[in-house]
Amino acid sequence: MATQTGITIAGPNEPYTVVNNILRPTPGPKQALVKTLYVGLNPSEPFMHHTGMLITSWPAVIGSDVSGVVLEAGADCEKIQKGGYIFTCVPVGISEFSPFQETFLVNEDWVFKKGENIGLEEACTVGAGLLTAGLALLEGQGLELPAAGSKAPQKDSWVIVMGGSGSVGRYCAQLASLAGHKVLSSCSPSKNELALRAGASATFNNRAPIEEQLAEIERITGGKFARIVDASVASLDLSVRALETVSKEPVKYFATVDDWSDMTVPDSINLYRVKLGMLGRSGDEQEHITRKVAEMVSVFQAHINTGQLLPLDYHLVNGEGWEAIIAGVADMEAGKLSKKPVVKAQSE
Ligand SMILES: NC(=O)c1ccc[n+]([C@@H]2O[C@H](COP(=O)([O-])OP(=O)(O)OC[C@H]3O[C@@H](n4cnc5c(N)ncnc54)[C@H](OP(=O)(O)O)[C@@H]3O)[C@@H](O)[C@H]2O)c1
């Protein structure tokens, strides 16, 4: 069997190692073998590296957001062909699907086709952020998008996004405003512009005392909100208090990207916990998430093609190759990168 280069981790918290003996996977009928060109870095990389959680076998290859070129398409692929460009967030923790190596497998239902209106670098800012936001708002809170190319009627209601300057939060804002809602995002004051550019109509300071944040939510929304998404994993108490004491809506929704902490919310609030990490795994809940992701990919592809969903600002990490990815992850962990990190893995 052919071998290839890439980055492996021997076990939880073991160092990243550049190797040349990874087995090159073979695509099934509805799969393709893709050459990694750019990767987008996410908090999931340090999470998997340090805890070993989500990883299905060792030594492990990891990675999440990616853009690349199809080298070989399985016999039953209809959407993607050899030589085409794709981008996506892979099923994380499964080595043969992971992009920190020369080539990796994709299932064609889980990938976006790259069109002319999006570059290979910015394309790898989309997958994890958009699919996570989609699960939170469409699957978790019943938000409905207009057909691609059309505009939803403006609603007199707000969606509140905690962490509205982050990757997931900015896609929550894009989706909620596409659905016709006004968006109120929490962020650090220095990141107001990022949140506003993503579609927020207003922001508030996520580091102010909780009473001040509640007062701002009340002042800005007048209580006209039923939905809060916590994309910060730091805003559970604030979200519950806002829904219980400020919201005037009869039915209340709270979605969170925190799928690992113990948490409860009052019975009056519908809780949804996003579990994108279940993509591509076996089991009832996992297969449900996998079907939802495939449905969302097809819906979002149309909105990306019309320019109604946009990629994020990004920081292109210096250099190219596996060492550049390792350095990029270290810089992200050290908090040195304020925008979504993107790294060139290989030339075509
Ligand atoms: N469950 C899932 O399936 C799933 C999927 C994808 C991601 N995630 C998780 O989602 C989280 C967000 O991911 P991301 O890529 O969007 O990260 P990111 O780009 O780093 O964004 C983090 C956001 O959290 C805010 N924040 C950080 N500390 C805060 C605090 N103390 N109080 C209030 N807000 C705070 C940041 O606001 P400022 O910088 O403006 O202060 C920023 O808006 C990560 O924890 C990630 O692991 C989960």
UniProtKB/TrEMBL annotation:
What is the similarity comment for this entry? Belongs to the zinc-containing alcohol dehydrogenase family.
- What GO molecular-function term can you cite, just one? oxidoreductase activity, acting on NAD(P)H
**SMART domains assigned:** PKS_ER (SM00829)
The source's domain of life comes to: Eukaryota
One Pfam family cited in the UniProt record for this chain? ADH_N
Keyword Oxidoreductase listed: yes
- SUPFAM superfamilies to which the protein is assigned, alphabetical: GroES-like (SSF50129), NAD(P)-binding Rossmann-fold domains (SSF51735)
Q: Which UniProt keywords apply?
A: Oxidoreductase
- Enumerate the spans annotated as Enoyl reductase (ER) domain: 11-343
Its recorded name reads: Chaperonin 10-like protein
